[in-house]
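Progress narrative, work stream C.
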Amino acid sequence: MGSAVGGTAGLFVGAAAGAFGWRAALVLPLLSLPFLRPALRLASGPPAPAPAPGDDTPRTPGHRTGPSLDILRDRRFLAAAGLMPALSTVNFVLLYAAPRRVTALTGWSAVETGAASSVAALAGALPSWQLVRAAPGLGPVRLRVLLALGSAGALALAVAAPWPVAVLIGSGTSALVTAGGQGLLTGAATEGLPPARHGLAIGLFNLAFLIGVAAGPALAAFADQTVQFI
C-alpha cells in the first residue's frame, strides 16, 4: 500500500514540480539522500564479534554469502516474480495512458484530470488490504489467476470503455491488483526458500516489479505516438 500510494503521489508531485521547469523535477530525488547513510548502516549488518584471547582466526566484517542460483530454480519464486512485472507494467501504462483518455473523453483541464486520476488510483491502492485478507482462502494458483484476470480486465476497461468513469475505474482496479499483488506475491516468492535466502529473493522480486515500472511509461508513450501517427 505504501509503495502504491507513494508511487501514485510521486507522479503528481513531480508534475507539479515540473511546472517550475524540468530541473525542479530532477531535484526531487535528492530528498532521499538524508536517508542514504542510515540505510547503508543497516545494510552493513552487525559488527563482527571480537576474537577470544588466543584466537587468530581471520574474520571479515559484515560477511555476506554470495548470490545463488537456487532462488532462480525455485518454481514458486519464478511464478510470483514472473507475474509481478506484468501487473506493474499494466499499472504504470494506465497511470500515464488513462488520464489522456479521460481528457480526450471529457475535455477536462490537466489539473481536473490529474485530480480525478489520482483519486481513482489511491482509491484502488488503499483498500488492497482486503485482497490480502482474502488471499489465504484462495490458494496460490487461484490467487495468481485472480490477479492476472483483474489486471487484464482493468486494462481492457481503461482502453476500450467509452465513459470516463469506466476508464477511472479500470485505473483504480489496476492499482488495487498491483498493490495487493506486490505484497502477496512477495510472500509467495519466498515461501519455498530457506530463511537465509529471503532477503536476496525479495530484492530480486522487487527488481522484477521495477521492470514493469520502467516498461509501463515507455509502452504508454509508444502507444500514444502510434495512435497519433495513424
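Work stream C, second folded protein:
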Amino acid sequence: MMENKINLCTNEILTKIPSTAKLVFYKIAIEDANFEITPEWIEWAAELAQTQYKTPHIIELSHKTDMDDQIYLRGLTNVIFDEFNIDLNDIPTICKCYGIYLIRQGFAENKDVYEILTQLANLFIVTNYYVFYDFYTLHLAYTELKKEGEQNYWDGLDFKNKEEYIRKYLEQWIKNPSSQLYNK
C-alpha cells in the first residue's frame, strides 16, 4: 500500500526512479491535445515494476507495445499518479522536482554549468513558471558576462566567479528550491 500523502520532492520514488519527476512535469506542462504517451513512459513503468511499487496498473503500462490508444494510456498514467498520491495540480512542487532532477542529471553527466543553466532558463521561457525565473535571470547575466565581460542582472556574479557561483547556486537550489528574485 502506498503512503497516504506524498510530498513529491521528498518522495522516495524520486530517489529510486528519478525520471518520475520528468514525466510528472511533462504531464502538467504539455497541453492534453499535444500530450502523448511514448515508449519512455513504458520504460518508466517497467522500472517502477522492478521496485516495491508494483501495482496492476504499473504492470499493465509496462507491458504496453501499442501506443495507438492514447486516451486509454493517458488515463492509465493518471491512475498511476493517483496511486502515488501525486497531485498534478501542485505545479510549483512539480516544477521544483523537475528542476532538481535536471540539475542532478546535469551534474551526474558532468555537463557544463552554462548548459544546465540554459536548460533551466529555457523552461522559464517555455512555461513561464515563476519557479524557473532565477535561472532565466542568471542565464541572462552569464550570457552577458560571456559577451561583454560584465553584467547587471545578478548581484555578486562576475566574470571571474561565474562558473563557481552558478555551480554553488545550483547546489544550494537543490537543497532549497525557491526563487530569490520572484516572491509569489
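Confidence is low (pLDDT under 50) at residues 1-6. No further action is required on this item.
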